[in-house]
Design a protein that fits this description.
alpha+beta, 19 helices, 7% strand, elongated
Length: 481
């Protein structure tokens, strides 16, 4: 009012009776009957003519946008839809990883010298290719209708990264189970419970950034966050593109979601590898919790000969024939020298006890023996005597309950990775993949055994001719008799 009075802006449209009626209706009615009083009232109302005659409210100028209430209504349903759609796939991933362990294929490959990095990498490369094809098809279809405004590149990266993160989560889950059926069911329930957790926390309140980041440490929670972002951007007809990937909605952006899923992939891969080494299992030798800090675990030297080990090849050995039974042939001087130099396989009170419903079952009872370099050693015994269990302990298929053994000076409890680089094993059970052909099996084992690539094809042909399987060269192993 003061500003308007100073600059002399008078509102000519305001009538005196209207001004006074605003303050006192009865008084204004009396003024209409008394002209003198009305003139005085008009002078009284004059300052009010300079006041604002109305108030207006205008929105702050922003860019125009459209809102699709379809996405607004179903943004909480879309994550559940995708989780349920991929739930069987997640269960299948876990099942296959545990089946590899249950069928002893994994430990058999390790016995043949295959590294953990190769075993883990084979799963990730296989599923990376499979999911790239599936996600590519899905991306094209989804871009036509559901996510029409979102960049196809962003959509592909988002879904493919999520697939790889739940592969890593499956590798983490498999470390806890030796039976595929149990592990698959539990893994499926845990995967679905992540959606329940996410919905329960985000449905009633808006979580802070720290809470959202904590939730996204679980792959399916990160996926739910990403799908809700996609729904928000699609409802505004903007879409998530490479230029809007950093824009935040409710404390998160798509770049944060992608980063968390990549972090989940590496985190659960590490946890799966670590737990696979330390958790009790029917197969493999268990490592101490601090194994990754031991230099012996990371050494990759092989057992080429006695040069790798310290020993005295020259001194005169002490005779222990007095301590030997008359039924045991005492070792020769050269054998004792080889033993001192570490050129032997030596079992020292090797013992293995299995837990059975009927109670503990002793399979190997304090076995002590030495197998010398350059000799053929035959371990004989009736069924159940412990022959196979002994070989399993020497090759790392299973760990001893007590006692130990050394192979060329390397302990089976701490140096199994190095031992496996120089031993060959023909197990009782088949190390086969039912979907691979005869030729593919021979190609894999040829590469594992270091045969030059150029020599593998003719070697395969010769081997097939030797055993009469030439006509089965392209037959899957599951279809053989």
């Amino acid at each position: 009012m003061l500003d308007r009075y100073i600059i002399g802006v008078r509102n000519e449209t305001l009538k005196t009776e209207d001004i006074l009626t605003h303050y006192n209706y009865d008084w204004a009615q009396e003024l209409r009957k008394n002209p003198k009083a009305f003139f005085e009232a008009e002078m009284l109302a004059e300052p009010l003519r300079y006041g604002p005659n109305r108030l207006e409210v205008s929105p702050f100028p922003i860019s125009g946008f459209n809102e699709d209430r379809f996405y607004t209504l179903i943004k909480d349903v879309v994550p559940m839809y995708f989780i349920l759609t991929f739930l069987y796939t997640q269960k299948k991933v876990i099942n296959e990883m545990i089946e590899e362990k249950e069928s002893k294929v994994r430990e058999s490959l390790r016995m043949l010298g295959t590294s953990n990095a190769a075993l883990i990498g084979s799963w990730y490369i296989t599923y990376a290719v499979i999911f790239a094809v599936l996600v590519g098809i899905f991306t094209v279809m989804a871009s036509l209708k559901v996510f029409a405004y979102t960049s196809m590149g962003v959509l592909f990266v988002f879904f493919w990264t999520w697939c790889m993160s739940f592969v890593a989560f499956g590798f983490f889950i498999q470390a806890f189970f030796d039976k595929a059926r149990t592990g698959g069911i539990v893994g499926m329930l845990v995967s679905f419970s992540q959606w329940v957790l996410f919905t329960g926390i985000t449905s009633n309140l808006q979580p802070t950034r720290s809470v959202m980041l904590s939730l996204m440490l679980l792959p399916n929670c990160a996926f739910c966050s990403g799908v809700q972002l996609l729904a928000e951007f699609e409802s505004s007809q903007i879409g998530v593109t490479w230029s809007t990937i950093h824009l935040e909605v409710d404390n998160i952006s798509m770049i944060i979601v992608l980063g968390m899923m990549v972090l989940d992939t590496f985190t659960f891969t590490f946890l799966g590898w670590y737990l696979d080494n330390v958790l009790p299992s029917e197969y493999g030798v268990r490592q101490p919790p601090w194994f990754c800090c031991l230099s012996s675990y990371w050494r990759s030297s092989t057992l080429d000969g006695a040069d790798d080990f310290s020993g005295n090849d020259t001194g005169e050995p002490q005779s222990n024939s007095d301590k030997l039974s008359r039924l045991i042939e005492p070792p020769s001087t050269s054998q004792m020298q080889a033993e001192q130099a570490g050129r032997c396989v030596k079992c020292d009170k090797l013992r293995k006890v299995f837990k059975t419903p009927a109670g503990p079952k002793i399979a190997v009872d304090s076995l002590t023996l030495t197998m010398y370099e350059g000799e053929i050693f035959a371990l004989l015994g009736h069924n159940g005597a412990g022959k196979t269990t002994t070989l399993h302990m020497l090759t790392g298929m299973t760990g001893p309950t007590s006692g130990t053994a050394t192979v060329y000076g390397k302990d089976i409890l701490t140096d199994m990775n190095q031992i496996r680089q120089s031993i060959g094993v023909c197990p009782q059970h088949d190390v086969l993949w039912l979907l691979l052909t005869v030729e593919e099996h021979l190609m894999i084992f040829g590469k594992l055994r270091g045969i030059p690539a150029a020599d593998i094809p003719p070697t395969i042909v010769q081997l097939l001719q030797d055993v009469g399987l030439t006509e089965k060269v392209h037959t899957p192993a599951g279809e053989l008799s």
